[in-house]
Design brief:
Largest sheet: 5 strands, mixed
Oligomer: single chain
Number of domains: 4
Strand order of the largest sheet: 3-2-1-4-5
Radius of gyration: 39 Å
Number of helices: 26
Length: about 575
């Protein structure tokens, strides 16, 4: 008679002696006993325990009190997926955070700080400490960046499609790698929030910068991104002939495909052109702009010269107290001068944004005495070409006409800066732009007075005193043909007519020319608040091509069309 162990018979692995498994047990004489009994020895053996555990697991799986191996493997796989997603989300979060702050993804920093990598994120820190793949290669990073780009653009395109109409804005420049690139933005009315939105769509690399290539790229990418060309209602560019040309410019080529995509010249660029033309026509203003550019670059081009100026900036001076005593009212010029008091350096003049030059001029006036002392020291310590240039800049700062033109330019440009900032707002529409320009025009005309210039003359006299000169014009001999030389009795009258009035008059003339009242009337047709103030037939007679859009019963469509018209290129320029 043989005995078998059910556990070992079914779940044995064949490595035992077979007595309780395949062969069976029949040595009954030695079956019992605590030490030598075969039954007790088999019960305590590892092979029997393993077989019993397998049997118990089978029973529990059959009773559904324990998951089977497939479920366990599936659960482990699910946990791995969740873990990998958490790791990818942590990496994407880092990429998005760096992108929002304009920080390089593969930049370098001190080795001492590398131990702090990902300390803020426990999941990412554990992942980076592991020996497996980290998904940090340039290829993976670029793929994740592309995924983020696609996701954002799809959301923008969906919102734009719900808005029905949209406009495009484009600006071209050369990046640091000397590649021509075009930034593209779209403007539309958010259907849910009922507000104007401006969104960046992407950069387009240009192989050529002619109108045909630029227009072709714009149309190609709009189609690629899923935006209907037929819904395009406006184009916003700068005034360059390539973009704004009426014969073969970009705006003309795009209108051949979308006839209702009317071109709007960037109003911020328009204002910049107002300043540019005025500064070039009025000779004293033109001269101080050129000379200040040379002066600031002379200082900033050398670390040694910058250190000399930096030392002077920390010395005490009561110049600003004397200047502010002259101003009885808190005007725009005085505010900028007070802001410039906290700056401990001078900045080069912007080559393209002329309205931004007022900040540099304010810093020079505020630190005029310190800057003059620094130029003096540079002249004393330098030799050769640097010494002669420093001497030329010192004599320039001691020129009465330079001082007077500097004060006048800062004063007038200070009134233009608020309009510049207003035109750069995303929610600025065409009617607001024209209203702000007309308000500025009235303000400039109101300050064209002897009283206003008398304060400027006193301000210039304070600057002249700190450089120890008399505020008198240089003696002129003979008949002048290359400069203004009015018949006046004093220096104050001379500069009031030849600099202050001349500069103000030209700025006002340019403002009236570039922000005409007639265009404001046309833009009012798209403003619901102005519906009762606009004569529809009069507007249509002046703006015949748009009559089919403006005079339709679809009031909301008309509003959307005019609201998506571009006012400025600020969104594009911030990206370039």
């Amino acid at each position: 008679m043989r005995a078998y162990c059910a556990y070992c018979l079914v779940f044995g692995d064949g490595h035992d002696d077979g007595m309780f498994g395949m062969i069976g047990f029949r040595d009954w004489k030695n079956a019992s006993g605590d030490k030598r009994g075969s039954l007790r020895i088999h019960e305590n053996s590892k092979l029997h325990s393993a077989a019993k555990e397998k049997a118990d697991n089978l029973i529990m799986v059959s009773n559904e009190s324990k998951p089977d191996i497939c479920s366990s493997l599936s659960k482990a796989y699910e946990n791995k997926i969740v873990r990998n997603r958490q790791i990818l989300l942590a990496i994407i979060d880092v990429i998005v955070s760096l992108g929002q702050r304009n920080i390089a993804l593969r930049g370098n920093w001190d080795k001492e700080l590398k131990k702090e990598d990902a300390k803020f994120d426990e999941i990412l820190r554990t992942h980076l400490q592991s020996q497996g793949p980290h998904y940090l290669s340039p290829k993976v990073q670029n793929e994740l960046i592309y995924c983020c780009e696609t996701e954002i653009r799809e959301k923008i395109v969906n919102d734009c499609k719900q808005a029905e109409f949209y406009s495009i804005c484009a600006d071209e420049t050369t990046d640091v790698s000397v590649k021509e690139q075009l930034s593209l933005c779209i403007r539309y009315v958010d259907r849910i929030k009922s507000e104007v939105r401006e969104e960046f769509m992407g950069f387009v690399e240009l192989t050529k910068t002619d109108a045909e290539n630029i227009a072709g790229n714009i149309l190609t990418y709009l189609d690629k991104w899923g935006l209907e060309i037929e819904k395009l209602r406006g184009q916003g560019y700068d005034g360059a002939s390539v973009m704004s040309g009426h014969v073969n410019g970009v705006q003309t080529r795009i209108r051949r495909t979308s006839p209702r995509a009317y071109y709007v010249h960037c109003r911020s660029h328009n204002l910049n052109l107002v300043v540019t033309q005025s500064c070039k026509v009025v000779h004293p203003i033109r001269n101080i702009m050129d000379n200040v550019v040379q002066l600031t670059w002379f200082i900033c081009a050398s670390a040694n010269r910058k250190n000399i100026l930096k030392e002077e900036m920390f010395t005490e001076s009561d110049l600003m107290d004397k200047i502010m005593e002259i101003n009885e009212e808190d005007d725009s010029s005085g505010k900028l001068l007070q802001e410039a008091m906290h700056k401990k350096s001078i900045q080069p003049l912007s080559e393209t944004r002329w309205t931004a030059r007022v900040d540099a001029l304010s810093a020079i006036i505020t630190n005029y005495e310190k800057l003059h002392n620094a130029v003096n020291k540079i002249e004393e310590k330098s030799s050769g070409d640097s010494k002669s240039k420093a001497g030329g800049h010192r004599r320039l700062m001691e020129d009465p006409e330079f001082i007077m033109a500097l004060v006048v330019a800062q004063y007038v440009l200070a009134f233009l800066k608020p309009l510049t900032l207003s035109l750069q707002k995303v929610d600025c529409d065409m009617v607001v732009a024209f209203d702000e320009a007309r308000n500025l025009l009235r303000t400039l005309k109101s300050i064209r007075s002897e009283e206003a210039f008398s304060k400027l003359f006193e301000r210039a006299r304070v600057l002249a005193d700190v450089v120890e000169i008399i505020l008198q014009p240089r003696r002129r001999v003979g008949r002048q043909i290359h400069r203004d030389n009015p018949n006046v009795d004093s220096a104050e009258q001379l500069w009031r007519v030849s600099i202050f009035y001349a500069f103000l008059d030209h700025v006002c003339t340019e403002l009236e020319r570039r922000f005409p009242q007639e265009q404001r009337q046309l833009m009012m047709a798209g403003d619901p608040k102005m519906e009762n103030k606009v004569r529809r037939q009069g507007i249509c007679s002046k703006f015949t091509p748009a009559s089919s859009c403006i005079c339709t019963p679809g009031f909301l469509s008309k509003h959307k069309t005019c609201s998506c018209a571009y006012v400025n290129l600020t969104s594009n320029e911030r990206l370039l």
